[in-house]
Amino acid sequence: MAEDDGDAPIRWDAGARGGAGGWVTAAGDTARAGPPGGAGPGNGGGYSVPPRVVLIAVGGAVLLAAAAVLVVRLFFSGSTDHPGQADAAPGGYASASSPARSAPAPPTGGQPQAPASAGTAGAQAAALDALLTRSAADREKVTAAVNAVDSCASRASVASAAEALNAASVRRDGLVTDLSRTALDALPDAGSAAADLRAAWRHSADADRAFAVWAADAVGCSPGEVPHGSVFARASESSELATAAKKEFLRKWAPIATRYGLPARDDTRI
Asked: Where do transmembrane segments lie in this chain (predicted)?
């Protein structure tokens, strides 16, 4: 009868149990299964680890280490970039690990902003003087048209005078508009002078329109018999207001014109 497995000397056999390894008796019978974790009973020493177990353990450790390295790299890849820089990607697109830089704004195609001051004080004074020259030319045309109606030389001349007076009123309105667009901030006291000039041209435009109505009413008149009714009186009143405003303007304008070498003017030349 065979000796009980618990008392028989045993040893580890890697080929036992179909290659899985196991403890066997001296006669070759399998005594118990399991890896040799410590000193085996009856052999008085440590056990060797089977090669397959070693390979599986090492392989698992390598996989875990590789996974840990990959996680660390993914975690820190976004934090090491410089702020505002995007990872390079094909086609110029930013990668998902960092925000894309915003493209610089293209230059606007709108109109440039006008400067608060247009040129030097001398240039501003010259620009205003050019408006005065235009106004002087209109005044001469208005004076000639009023005289043509008053003399009533012919029906055609009176009708032509009425058209000239209407056109003059439109040009006076244009002068007011152009004056408001003319920079005068570099000229001393120019703001007050410009206000007087604006009032003068507005009164002149009102006078021109009233004279035009008077001329239209006078068509068909006889020489020396042109009526001077309420419309003519209204035109004359507006003309007087314009003259007063022009004189106030010239009082303020004269020292500016002298300073910048511009021609002297009186109320008949603006």
From this structure: 53-76
